[in-house]
Design brief:
Largest sheet: 39 strands, parallel
Radius of gyration: 30 Å
Number of helices: 4
Distance between the termini: 65 Å
Helix content: under 10%
Strand content: 35-45%
Shape: elongated
């Protein structure tokens, strides 16, 4: 168990005047651990573990009551035998050790129905899985700053159940069959600040059979996978969140995941680039893309057969196929987004009998196919709604084809700039809109601010100040988010970008103590309890005040 620190310290006026606070408390000195600390000082392991060896320390930790700590105090350990299975909670402090299996089929760390932690270690040359963790309900495990590789198994294998949780913080998982494998019937796994690379199969594999499993991947890079970068399936209201990450250079899809029984997949502030097949493919319930970018790939940016698919403030570009190719049971929503420069259509959607496609405040242009192609069920209640969007300048928009091609789907277009259109077997309403616009007046796809590439409006564009002057339901920002307003100077523009001066991020408040030229310097992180430090500083000030008062007190005659 990790050392604990005192978080509550009462400082009375008498103790302050006595200056009794010891320096060790100010520095946040740790309390003693709950279980024994077992020191590893041997650089090998034996079939019959000897004192000081890592195998011996694991056996001792299994035998004691409560959580023990294993403290490795050597730089390298060469495995001469398999490590014993860990059956009781233990924290292993690697302190930068390299544990080498020397290419033999050695068993690495296996936590069986046991929580704990593994920190600061490199695991290499182990033909089996370097680390496998199987948790029971109520158990937790932390993996921090670990480098793991193996050619024939997952670098890390995690099995979680309801009520259990795993945190992977930092670390590098590479040159393995799978970087990190997650399976189980529930529980939660959070992966932060990690690097997963050069897996022969998936970078991250998720196999959720039953139960609500939550997987969050944040600030992580997944690249160079031999198949799909992220793959697997979710059931029973499980979820995957891919946040502030980059997924690239996979031989398959960036994300290939099925989500059933109320499960959801969210891709937020993430880049999926140069994956061989494309960005996202899946089947199932609900998928959303927010503040994210998809580029590169030969099949589609997004290929989905789902109940619901939502794109918000995102860009899909440079695909050797359609930007979005989907069969939607209920809804496809594209808001404040850009689909540009794809070899196929911008959007190619087949909608179910009662499904709805809506494209709002978006730009669909420069695609080699139709801008928006929607095919519905004849006689159904399906519908297409386009509002405040540019759908023009696509390669099949001229020559008798269409920027918008709709079949058997009720269509409404309002406050939009449209190139050519072809509506078959469906009613169309929703004016006002600008039809037959050959040139929507767009600058090339570029970095115009915000997390994704966008098309700025060129001077004289028919989309400038052409939106509904009485609009009340517009988003707060344009595609770029942040300080880029959706309505600027009183009238909304059409398309994903609202033309306006580049916002200036407010500076941090200046520090009055230095004449207003700089912000206050932050205190260094010494590990001290901030409440205690503040109390001691207050005590010193009190003492100083008392001493000044005593020195200035007049003597009695």
């Amino acid at each position: 168990m990790a050392p604990s620190r005192s978080r509550h310290f009462a400082l009375s006026a008498l103790s302050a005047l006595a200056l009794a606070a010891p320096l060790a408390l100010i520095a946040g000195a740790p309390a003693s651990a709950a279980g024994p600390t077992l020191v590893v000082n041997a650089s090998t392991t034996s079939a019959v573990p000897q004192p000081g060896e890592l195998g011996w320390a694991i056996e001792q930790a299994n035998a004691v009551t409560g959580a023990a700590t294993i403290d490795i105090q050597v730089d390298d350990i060469l495995l001469g035998a398999d490590l014993p299975t860990i059956t009781d909670g233990v924290e292993i402090r690697g302190n930068g050790v390299t544990i080498d299996g020397d290419g033999w089929f050695r068993t690495g760390f296996f936590f069986q129905d046991a929580g704990g932690a593994l920190r600061d270690a490199t695991l290499t040359g182990i033909s089996g899985s370097p680390l496998a963790v199987s948790l029971a309900a109520g158990q937790s495990f932390a993996l921090e700053n670990v480098d793991a590789a193996t050619p024939s198994a997952p670098a890390v294998s995690l099995y979680v159940v309801p009520g259990s949780e795993v945190l992977v913080d930092g670390g590098r998982f590479h040159d393995s069959s799978v970087g990190i494998s997650v399976s189980g019937d529930g529980g939660s796994v959070e992966i932060e600040d990690a690097s997963i690379s050069d897996s022969t199969s998936a970078g991250l594999s998720i196999d959720n059979t039953f139960g609500a499993l939550s997987v969050v991947v944040r600030d992580t890079t997944i690249e160079g996978s031999g198949a799909h970068a992220v793959s697997g399936s979710l059931y029973d209201t499980s979820s995957l969140e891919l946040v502030d990450s980059r997924v690239s250079d996979a031989d398959g899809w960036g994300l290939r995941l099925d989500a059933f029984s109320g499960s959801t997949v969210s891709v937020i502030r993430t880049t999926l680039a140069d994956n061989s097949y494309g960005g996202i493919s899946g089947f199932g319930n609900a998928f959303e893309l927010v503040d994210s970018a998809i580029s590169g790939g030969t099949i589609a940016g997004i290929e989905m057969d789902s109940v619901a698919l939502t794109l918000t403030r995102s860009t899909v570009s440079g695909i050797e196929g359609p930007g979005v190719q989907t069969q939607v049971a209920e809804r496809l929503e594209v808001v404040n987004s850009t689909l540009s420069g794809n070899s196929g259509s911008g959007i190619n959607a087949f909608v179910g009998t009662t499904a709805r496609v809506s494209v709002e405040h978006s730009t669909v242009t420069a695609n080699d196919g139709v801008g928006i192609l929607v095919d519905g069920d004849a006689g159904g209640d399906d519908e297409l709604r386009i509002s405040h969007s540019i759908v023009a300048g696509n390669a099949l928009g001229g020559g008798g084809a269409a920027d918008i091609y709709v079949s058997d789907t009720d269509t409404a277009v309002a406050w939009s700039v449209i190139g050519s259109s072809r509506i078959i077997g469906a009613a169309i309403d929703g004016d006002p809109a600008s039809w037959g616009v050959a040139d929507p007046g767009l600058e090339p796809l570029a970095d115009n601010g915000g997390p994704t590439l966008t098309h700025a409006l060129a001077d004289g564009s028919p989309a400038i100040d052409a939106g509904d002057p009485a609009i009340v339901s517009a988003p707060s920002t344009d595609q770029r988010g942040g300080l880029y307003l959706r309505v600027y100077d009183g009238v909304i523009d059409i398309g994903a970008v609202e033309m306006q001066p580049t916002p200036v991020t407010p500076a941090e408040p200046a520090d009055p103590s230095d004449g207003g030229d700089a912000a206050p310097a932050e205190l260094a992180d010494t590990g001290a309890d901030p409440v205690l430090v503040a109390g001691v500083i207050t005590a010193l000030l009190l003492v100083g005040a008392v001493l000044v008062s005593v020195r200035r007190r007049p003597r009695r005659s």
